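User: Could you go from structure to sequence for me? I need the amino acid at each position, not a summary. Structure tokens:
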């Protein structure tokens, strides 16, 4: 975690405001958790472009949350099935990994409806994730920025 703290501090040093950096982190986390494999880099790049955010900062966070995206894939799929009144999928992580090894296209077509349902669940909770992360991180980043400026004086 210290490695990421140093990288985030570097973004403050180059002049990104704490608020903009908090938004990069919040969007990077939220878009990094999309339960549709292979989409997060593009979504984060699009968010950086649309909101005029630092692409490197948002992608750093996106890549950092990748293990969490994988860990939440099945829970998102199960929540999506419940939301739409379907039986939750009975795939294990190992079975999904095996499908991915046979090819991304085979996996996408095999899990199309399940993935769409999972994305709906993500759409419902993503604004909460973004808001919570932004509200919690902004004061922390402001403090880090102040401490950095004091240390530089």
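Assistant: Here is the amino acid at each position, in order:
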């Amino acid at each position: 975690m210290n490695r990421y703290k140093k990288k985030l501090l570097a973004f403050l040093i180059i002049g990104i405001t704490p608020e903009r950096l908090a938004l990069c982190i919040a969007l990077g986390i939220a878009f990094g958790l999309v339960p549709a494999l292979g989409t997060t880099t593009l979504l984060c790049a699009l968010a950086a472009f649309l909101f005029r955010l630092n692409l490197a900062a948002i992608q750093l966070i996106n890549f950092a949350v990748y293990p969490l995206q994988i860990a939440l894939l099945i829970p998102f799929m199960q929540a999506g099935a419940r939301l739409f009144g379907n039986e939750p999928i009975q795939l294990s992580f190992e079975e999904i990994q095996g499908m991915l090894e046979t090819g991304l296209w085979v996996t996408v077509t095999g899990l199309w409806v399940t993935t769409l349902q999972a994305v709906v669940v993500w759409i419902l909770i993503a604004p909460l994730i973004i808001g919570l992360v932004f509200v919690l991180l902004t004061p922390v980043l402001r403090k880090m920025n102040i401490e950095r400026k004091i240390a530089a004086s």
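One structural detail worth keeping in mind: The chain has a mean pLDDT of 88.
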